[in-house]
Write a structure and sequence with these properties.
Helix content is 70%, strand content 1%. The model is unreliable at 1-23, 229-236 and 351-363 (pLDDT under 50). The chain is built from 15 helices and two strands. Helix 1 packs antiparallel against helix 5 and helix 8 crosses helix 9 (258-287). By secondary structure, the protein is an all-alpha fold. The radius of gyration is 21 Å and the shape is globular. It has a two-stranded antiparallel ribbon with strand order 1-2. The chain has a single domain (27-225, 237-453), classed as Up-down Bundle (Growth Hormone, Chain: A), CATH 1.20.1250.20.
Length: 466
């Protein structure tokens, strides 16, 4: 089916079929169950990656903060490379075998094990490698789980509400982060807390594991397995055959929908910038602006609240004006906020703030209000850009190829995943202080914006038939 042109012009959203033509609304409980997986994922995204565990790993407990920040970027860069090599293959095989939900369960289980392993990283430098290893394995497994989870978007939405459903799910992730961080703040985030051999960060990771497992379960009961055969003849094959088929799919994409290839490249770059903002946000808050562990969590709650409201609200704008406009507007907002935060922290724009001192003394910490204001502005735009990117692709994937194309989405994203970590580390080395890492992340966002301006609005379903 096709929609009539809307007032949004060339950027009007294209159609999206689920298992066939839209025949009616998807039951609300099915959508909520699907979105709860985003809620569950807040354990890894908010607690492990952003505000608790990475901050813990890069603290003075384990060594030099600047050096550990650089190591964090390298470990996550390697994890991203492994995702890039495997994501489209796992997605392709789940399409061909009709086992999307089964593989979602496998990768969810591995992520839960990685989260639990983080609870056994004791505050001693000899445990830092275990911490980086567990974080890297979890990063790989949650990305591969998301390939199958994102592919389910076409099972719980229609052509008229895909933007709202995607935004609702992403927003649920932020709201879940708020609730979990509040629980951790009032129950566990206390440097003096010690239960047996475990201290507050380790206890927090135990709670995060239970949260992740518990709220992941509803999607497995409410959303059925993918039984729709792939329209382009995807079949199960061995490892070599899977890569051969992947090359064929990429060739078909390049021939029949080159705009989609350019979108995958553009989104890979700007999504890596978005990931960098959250990955290193807690680290910068602590190391540059002097946030205490509890203050980091307070900020995290506010950040998730802002991001969640913005993401859910812009889902309607996505459906009305098209995801491309939402993405471009969000990236511009991110650049303005990031540049302002960096400039103010170094005293470029506000002589009252004063630059950060090179000796790293307490007087050299940047004023906390800068991070509060412009950090929250950054959060206002991150969620909408991520959600709209997911819905842009969901609108054009042919039925039966969801896992494969979202696997390509993960692969292209991870193919660029080294950019933010390495540029973050490189600019710390260039500037000599942690705050310079912001410049590296903003460069990645800027390149993604330029490439996104060259991408046309989605124009309908792809045809990957032979």
């Amino acid at each position: 089916m096709t929609d009539h042109p809307s007032s949004a012009g060339n950027d009007a959203p294209a159609t999206l079929d689920t298992a066939g033509p839209d025949v009616g609304p998807v039951p609300r409980k099915k959508v909520v169950a699907w979105a709860l997986y985003d809620w569950a994922g807040s354990s890894f995204n908010a607690v492990a990656t952003t505000f608790v565990f990475t901050r813990y790993l890069t603290s003075s407990t384990f060594g030099d903060t600047d050096e550990l920040s650089g190591q964090l970027g390298l470990w996550l860069g390697l994890a991203g490379l492994l995702v890039a090599l495997t994501a489209p293959i796992t997605g392709q095989q789940s399409d061909a075998g009709g086992h999307r939900k089964r593989w979602l369960g496998v990768w969810t289980g591995i992520t839960a094990i990685a989260l639990l392993a983080m609870a056994f990283v004791f505050p001693d430098p000899q445990f830092v490698v275990l911490g980086f290893f567990a974080l890297s394995i979890g990063t790989i497994s949650i990305e591969l789980a998301n390939v199958n989870y994102y592919a389910m978007l076409t099972q719980v939405s229609t052509s008229r509400n895909v933007g709202r459903v995607s935004g609702f799910g992403w927003g649920m992730g932020y709201v879940g982060g708020i609730v979990q961080l509040l629980i951790l703040l009032f129950a566990f985030i206390d440097p003096e807390l010690q239960l047996g051999p475990f201290h507050y960060v380790q206890l927090s990771m135990m709670v995060a594991t239970l949260w992740y497992v518990g709220f992941s379960l509803p999607v497995f009961f409410a959303v059925g397995e993918n039984k729709q055969p792939a329209s382009g003849g995807v079949t199960r094959a061995g490892l070599l055959g899977a890569y051969v088929e992947l090359c064929r799919s990429i060739a078909r994409l390049w021939t029949r929908s080159r705009n989609t290839v350019w979108f995958l490249i553009a989104s890979a770059i700007f999504r890596d910038g978005l990931t960098g903002i959250f990955t290193f946000g807690g680290v910068i808050a602590s190391g540059t602006f002097g946030f205490s562990p509890s203050l980091v969590i307070y900020f995290a709650v506010a950040a998730n609240l802002v991001a969640g409201i913005a993401t859910i609200a812009t889902g309607t704008l996505d459906d009305r004006f098209g995801p491309r406009r939402v993405i471009i507007t969000s990236l511009v907002g991110l650049l303005v906020s990031g540049v302002a935060a960096f400039g103010l922290a170094l005293g470029f724009f506000d002589p009252m703030a004063g630059p950060i001192q090179s000796d790293g003394s307490p007087s050299g910490l940047a004023p906390a209000w800068i991070f509060w204001i412009f950090g929250l502005f950054l959060c206002l735009f991150v969620g909408p850009a991520q959600s709209a990117s997911r819905s842009f692709l969901a609108r054009i994937i042919p039925v039966g190829h969801e896992g494969e194309v979202f696997g390509l989405y993960a692969t292209t994203g991870r193919a660029a995943t080294f950019l933010s970590p390495l540029l973050f580390s490189a600019f710390i080395a260039i500037g000599g202080k942690q705050i310079w890492g912001i410049v590296g992340i903003m460069i990645v966002v800027a390149v993604g914006l330029v490439l996104m301006l060259l991408v046309r609005a989605s124009a309908g379903k792809l045809d990957l038939s032979r």
